[in-house]
Amino acid sequence: MKQYLFVIFAIATTNLVQAQEMLTAKEAVEIALKNNYDILIATNQAKISEKNVGIANAGMLPRLDATLTKNNNLQNSTQTQADGTQRELNNAKNNSLNYGVTLGWTIFDGLRMFARYDQLKELEKQGETQLKSAIVTKVADVLSTYYDLVQQQQMLATLDTAVVISKQRLQTADNRYKIGKASKLEVLNAQVDLNTDVTNLVKQKQLYANTITQLNELLVRDRTTTYRVEETVHIDSKLELKNLMRLAEKQNPDIQLAIINKRVAELDLKQVKANRYPVIKLNTGYNFAETESSLGFVTQSSSKGFNYGLSATLNIFNGFLQHRNEKIANLQVENTQFLLDKQKQILNTQLTTVFQSYLTNLELKELEAKNEDIARQNLDITLEKFRIGTITTIEFRNAQLNYITARTRHNAARYQAKISEVALKELTGSVTF
């Protein structure tokens, strides 16, 4: 008789998930990493940051330009020379043509270009860290929804088992009524309880379908895709707060972003301070110039050749803006340090809180497992006594409800323990599946 309830539960589970593909947690994460829009966007942003890293973008390379200028004029001109002679010409043509190449190269700018290059590399790290943050967050979302679906699937099997038992009870009550060993009231009570169990099952099917839709959205799949999930949930019960804090300080994306932002602010300060130094540029080029004029002492001229030179500029006074800009940049660096310290404090608080929930949920999981086992044994005994008519329908129904409640609480405790584990690993930047 002890195996009877187990067989009913196994049959109920099989009926609910038959003819459906199995989706594992690992497969769900892999699909999300491939399809999820947030991850795809973060991936492209990281690639943009990578492409921006270069000595040319930092201003270290020379610039070569080709120029061409062609001007044509048609004018009525009058000229009075020094001896008083006056010359006039209508529709006088004046044409000019200039073309060439110029090269400009900033060879010193107070080391601003080197600070800019280092900043571009930090921004590349920022893009990579933001991508990691998006991946960690989305993987945690997928796993949370996946294990919620596991819980919903187990709840479906529990309620389906309740329906099977209630049908057995109704059939037993009806048989006893037909042979005069039970009243019509017992049959009606059994029918009402069966209807209640069927209603609960229908509502649970709706909740299960909604959870599948949510997971499909995270995986960027057709919303109508159906599948079954794993029944067994492995929970890592050996996590330690000290190790988690040490790992989080090294890998938590928010901490890493705060560190990078501080470095970027420091490099901004270097670039601002570079304005105190002169900017030295080399200039060279090759140019050709040609002019034509219908009126004047020179009617045509041309020139061509190289030019080269050096220019230097130094800001001596700009209304104390340099002092102001450096002060602001220093305050920005100070703020990034405050934000880093704040983020570490928040992280430690979150880890401590979630870890306490994790320990509590592990303890509840073990306790609820024992309660479910006791409720199952009680229902086995009650079901056998009901068959031989030694207990009332109310006692049987209470045993049945106690079993459903115990199994529901066990499922919920396992789910909460797993979610606590996922949350801890998300905070450490090391979500696994």
TrEMBL record:
<dbReference type="GO" id="GO:1990281">
    <property type="term" value="C:efflux pump complex"/>
</dbReference>
<keyword id="KW-0472">Membrane</keyword>
<keyword id="KW-0812">Transmembrane</keyword>
<keyword id="KW-0813">Transport</keyword>
<dbReference type="InterPro" id="IPR051906">
    <property type="entry name" value="TolC-like"/>
</dbReference>
<protein>
    <submittedName>
        <fullName>TolC family protein</fullName>
    </submittedName>
</protein>
<dbReference type="Pfam" id="PF02321">
    <property type="entry name" value="OEP"/>
</dbReference>
<dbReference type="GO" id="GO:0015288">
    <property type="term" value="F:porin activity"/>
</dbReference>
<dbReference type="GO" id="GO:0015562">
    <property type="term" value="F:efflux transmembrane transporter activity"/>
</dbReference>
<feature type="signal peptide">
    <location>
        <begin position="1"/>
        <end position="19"/>
    </location>
</feature>
<dbReference type="InterPro" id="IPR003423">
    <property type="entry name" value="OMP_efflux"/>
</dbReference>
<comment type="similarity">
    <text>Belongs to the outer membrane factor (OMF) (TC 1.B.17) family.</text>
</comment>
<keyword id="KW-0732">Signal</keyword>
<dbReference type="GO" id="GO:0009279">
    <property type="term" value="C:cell outer membrane"/>
</dbReference>
<keyword id="KW-0998">Cell outer membrane</keyword>
<keyword id="KW-1134">Transmembrane beta strand</keyword>
